[in-house]
Amino acid sequence: MNPFLDIHPDVAEAVRQKRPVVALESTIISHGMPYPQNVETALKVEQTIRENGAVPATVAIIGGRLKAGLSPEEIEYFGKKGRAIAKASRRDLAVLAARGEDGATTVTTTMIIAHMAGIKIFATGGIGGVHRGAETTMDISADLEELAKTPVMVICAGAKSILDLGLTLEYLETKGVPVLGYQTKELPAFYTRQSGFSVDYRIDTPSQLAQILYTREQLGLSGGVLVANPIPEPYSMPKEVIDAAIDRAIRESREQGIRGKGTTPFLLARVAELTGGESLAANIELVLNNARLAAKTAAEYCRLSH
Ligand code: PSU
Ligand code: MN
Q1: Is residue 160 annotated as a catalytic residue, yes or no?
Q2: pTM of the full structure
Q3: C-beta separation of 146 from 222 below 8 A
């Protein structure tokens, strides 16, 4: 057993009994939304997962412990501390654990810890990817490498066009990661259902998603599966509105010389400021929508693997 891993008793019990469990990330809490909406949303997402028949496991690093499953008090602590918490990617894990520090888990580290805890399905908002201008900056999110190697299904609402979505899809293709559109053939772009890019496959039911994950395991293929679940129609924002805010945020980040791990949080915060309450409401709704789909898929997966 991993001596740094703390699996919440409810999560451990569900994993042992092969009942449905859904992992959730914590960077979305600390860096993705303002307090107190971040805490309210994180608790509501957990509740939504329970209502759909699965056990939620919010992942984070607290005092150097890798946590799969948080208490409501721990979620409140994370939300309040916000961006003061280190954003933890793969390379930060051992440093934070060795030094007994806190870390907010990204898609990458949530996948790693979910896998350590025996959790197969993970719901989030958006993934990282190939940044615009990556041909000169080489800024490519570690999320893509993790999807290439760690066997977890990640259910997201696509990616924001703060990224180069075309290059992100090329990278995933090279790395052998299936990209499945849920009830769509178009890659959704987080706040909006439209991106102009196609995904490999359109999948129409949670049962079919579960079957693909299960089959991938039976084939002995390493790596994850990416599911792109579009934001529900009533909350989808006009592409032009969101694109204008993103273009401006990217311009500002270049002017200010933002780089490295600070880039994504800067762009996310700036886009949220520029588009105001509408984008926050959309963000909350798409995360809840992904939580519902993840819980249903986890339930179907358990039926297959029993
Ligand atoms: N994109 C979003 N919302 C987010 C993130 C990305 O629309 O919250 C977060 C996720 O935790 C993701 C991380 O894993 O940012 C990617 O950061 P980077 O680009 O530095 O790899
Ligand atoms: Mn980066």
Answers
A1: yes
A2: 0.97
A3: no
